[in-house]
Amino acid sequence: MLFNTYEPWKFTFAQETSNLEDIKNQNFHDLSKSGQWGIIGVPFDSTCSYHNGSRYAPLVIREASYGFEKFNTNFQKNLDTIFYDFGDSNIINGNCKKTCEIVEENVTDLLTNNINPLIIGGEHSLTLGSIKALAKFYNISEITVIHIDAHRDIIESYQNEKYSHATILRRIHELNPKEIIQIGIRSASKEENDYVKNQKNIQTFTPTDLQSDFNKLINYLKSIKGPIYLTIDMDGLDPSIAPSVGNPTPNGLKSQDIAEVMKIISKKEIIGFDLMEVATNKLGDITAVLAAKFILDFLTLLP
Ligand SMILES: [Mn+2]
Questions:
Q1: Which domains does the chain have, with CATH numbers?
Q2: Which of 79, 169, 206, 247 is the most exposed place for a label (fewest CB within 10 A)?
Q3: CA distance to 77, 94, 96, 156, 188, per residue, from 268 (Å)
Q4: CA of 184 to the centre of ligand 1 (A)
Q5: Residue 118 phi/psi, 5° resolution?
Q6: Rounded to two decimals, what is the model's pTM?
Q7: Are 247 and 150 in contact (CB under 8 A)?
Q8: Which of the 8 DSSP states describes residue 237?
Q9: What are the CA-CA distances from residue 133 to residues 130, 158, 271, 273 (Å)?
Q10: Alpha helices of the chain — where are they, by DSSP H?
């Protein structure tokens, strides 16, 4: 029998069921086994400082995922990871803190069932909810956060708001993770740079650093011990390949840079992943297509 498998509200190749209770009750897969992932979209963009529209990204990225094959010719590997698509999280428009709390609650539900979170934003602030949930299951002082972004997002407050997509790495740093590795940075305030200079556990790799010595980054990533959380703001990429983002910033990363980072860390213990700040409501948008490809690459590379 032939089925039409195109369900644009659900990420391609996700397991057919998307109800956590069903998964638990019907034993679709042994949830005591690790290595299963759950997608949650978060259609929230209330604190965006420039182009909004990332609230539409979970839908557009899911739809874009249907353009790809299950076999990855770059990695010579099939997508065999078991993952579910649990749909979109509830949000509270205009309230970043409360929306992060909802994300935290949802991610906690997944982790309670041994499912790792894969968040599709939405704006970057939502990463906080995901990491706060992980901190209940892992020792936060052992977690390395790999942060791909044009911006540091580490200012104490932005427009007098402590909870904003511009401050979120500061809130995460306050939780005392082992280390934050910022890759792709090319825009920051002096205050942010001064803050980073005074911290031992924040590393920076600019696009220029990568151009002059990419192996330095590779070797640094290879040396990471302990659990890793990967968060990608799509504006880390160059706007020539990822124009539809909240804050496009010239002279950014190449898509191959992201694939290389993923290749290295996929051999390590990755506990969570999010992809943020795609801002478009247009089906087939090139930035959403690239975002869908990154998510597929990530899932394919997992052991
Ligand atoms: Mn950014």
A1: 37-301 (3.40.800.10)
A2: 206
A3: 17, 37, 31, 31, 30
A4: 9
A5: -130, 105
A6: 0.95
A7: yes
A8: B
A9: 5, 24, 11, 13
A10: 20-26, 57-64, 96-112, 127-134, 168-173, 190-197, 207-212, 214-222, 255-265, 286-301
How many residues in the chain?
303
Which structure tokens are listed for 49?
A: 């400082």
Q: What is the DSSP letter of 122?
A: S
- Expressed in angstroms and rounded, the spacing between residue 20 Cα and the centre of ligand 1 is 32
- 186 CA to centre of ligand 1 in angstroms: 10
Cα(1) to centroid(ligand 1), Å: 46
Using DSSP, how many helices (H) and how many strands (E) does the chain show?
10, 10
Cα 193 to ligand 1 centroid, rounded to whole Å: 15
Query: How many angstroms does the Cα of residue 228 sit away from the middle of ligand 1?
Result: 20
Q: How far apart are the C-alpha atoms of 238 and 251, rounded to whole Å?
A: 6
Kindly give the distance from the C-alpha atom of residue 30 to the centroid of ligand 1, in angstroms, as a whole number. 38
Per-residue pLDDT 10s for the chain (303 aa) are 555 678 888 999 999 888 888 887 766 666 667 789 999 999 999 888 788 899 999 999 999 999 999 999 999 999 999 999 999 999 999 999 999 999 999 999 999 999 999 999 999 999 999 999 999 999 999 999 999 999 999 998 888 888 888 899 999 999 999 999 999 999 999 999 999 999 999 999 999 999 999 999 999 999 999 999 999 999 999 999 999 999 999 999 999 999 999 999 999 999 999 999 999 999 999 999 999 999 999 999 998
Ligand 1: distance of its center to the CA of 127 in Å?
Answer: 13
- 258 Cβ contact partners less than 8 Å away, ≥ 6 residues apart: 148, 232, 236, 237, 294, 297
C-alpha 273 – ligand 1 centre gap (Å): 16
